[in-house]
Write a structure and sequence with these properties.
about 400 residues; alpha+beta; six-stranded antiparallel beta barrel; 9 helices; about 35% helix; elongated
């Protein structure tokens, strides 16, 4: 009986020692050779400089001392030389007569179209398509914040809807109504023209309603401007204008950056400018000038000939100057290893087996690298696939001794 009890105690002690030993080994392996993994994914990184500067254009202010005016063009719209920029009214009665005249002319146009379309079924049916397309345009302008274009799009939609109504109702009594409208237009024309003068465009260009820096920020001034001069720029008083015309398609962005950042730039290089507000897409620019250093600062000038109509309202802006963009598979820096052949790569866990996958480094960040699969010499297509790094691979970040084909417990 005592022998049986002793043997039972010995078995229990051995089992306890085995359990303790197992956990001791696992704890030792974790502390001495911890194994952690992370997933590989595709990532884009940028090298950039935060800047604050001014948008510069070749601009001509259009003066006007009158107060009762009506602008004829939307922001960012092209205006030809001699085109009417604004109408100046001598009195409120002249303004009312002109507005009524425009309404009558629109009605006459709708009726004339309806008269010609009433005998053409295909033309009448096309109006349904035009209405749908114009509704989409109005909605797109509203959602994108291009509210100035709504002043043109909404009247166009209204006109098309009326044309459709007239066309489907037939041409009965249209002739009499057209004669009546013509008489009303003729009577109002003399009254409206007598109390109205036009302000025309002195040059062709892109219209903008906002003015203020045109005399102090010019493309010519940027050729010799210093960092301190840009900092001291202040707007001029321009209270008697109807806006300005931007000549040509070129615009510039001038900003002060540190002398150290300027040392890494090269005149003539193509870069990307990302505005903090006002434009929701990246702008391609070219670096045209780097000034001499002044108190640790350099003035840089960027030029673009694209998207002028999107930057007509921009002046002082915070922006990000993108110097380089990199894309690749993101892996932690401490996951990179060099095998016995001197090839750089990472170990990936497939099942419980570690496989070495060679990589080529594209870009190094603070704690990560962007890589692409390296050159692989494999006999079969399946081996080629096995040793090629791909998104969602489980890369081993930290472990003890690793080698190709190691079984990881």
């Amino acid at each position: 009986m005592k022998s049986t009890s002793l043997s039972t105690k010995l078995i229990m002690i051995l089992l306890l020692l085995a359990v303790v030993g197992y956990f001791a080994v696992q704890g030792y392996n974790y502390l001495v050779s911890p194994e952690t993994t992370t997933l590989v994914y595709r990532y884009r990184s940028e090298q950039s400089i935060a800047v604050r500067g001014c948008v510069v254009r070749k601009e001509q202010v259009v003066d006007c001392g009158e107060t009762l005016i009506e602008l004829k063009h939307a922001e960012g719209e092209h205006v030809g030389q001699g085109d009417t920029i604004a109408a100046v009214y001598r009195s409120a009665e002249a303004l009312s007569a002109t507005q009524e005249l425009e309404s009558l002319r629109a009605q006459k146009e709708q009726l004339e179209y309806a008269k010609s379309a009433s005998s053409d079924a295909a033309t009448a049916l096309r109006l349904d398509t035009d209405i749908r397309e114009q509704i989409v345009s109005v909605r797109a302008a509203y959602e994108s914040g291009a509210y100035s274009s709504l002043d043109t799009l909404i009247p166009q939609l209204k006109t098309t809807v009326l044309k459709r109504e007239y066309a489907y109702n037939g041409s009965d009594n249209l002739t009499a109504r057209l004669d009546e409208l013509s008489a009303q237009i003729s009577a109002l024309s003399s009254a409206a023209s007598g109390g109205t003068t036009r302000i025309t465009a002195p040059v062709s260009g892109t219209y903008s309603a906002v003015a203020g820096y045109e005399s102090v920020l010019t493309p010519e001034a940027l050729e010799t401007m210093t960092p301190s001069q840009l900092t001291a720029i202040a707007p001029q008083s321009v209270s008697t204008t109807v806006g300005k015309l931007i000549e040509g398609s070129a615009w510039y962005f001038a900003a002060n950056i540190s002398e150290e950042d300027a040392a890494g730039l090269k005149v003539g290089s193509s870069l990307t400018l990302r505005m903090a507000s006002g434009v929701d897409f990246d702008l391609p620019v070219k670096l045209t000038r780097i000034s001499d250093a002044e108190n640790g600062k350099c003035l840089i000038v960027l030029k673009s000939t694209r998207y002028l109509s999107y930057v007509t309202l921009l002046r002082e802006q915070n922006a990000e100057l993108i110097l380089n963009q990199y894309e690749g598979l993101r892996v932690p820096k401490n996951a990179l290893r060099v095998n016995e052949d001197g090839v750089s790569g990472v170990y990936c866990l497939i099942g419980r087996v570690a496989y070495f996958k060679p990589v080529a480094i594209v870009y190094q960040g603070s704690d990560y690298c962007l890589v692409e699969p390296g050159k692989i010499e494999a006999a079969t297509e399946s081996q080629q696939s096995l040793y090629t790094l791909r998104p969602n691979d489980e890369v081993i970040v930290s472990a003890g001794e690793l080698y190709n084909g190691k079984v990881v417990d």
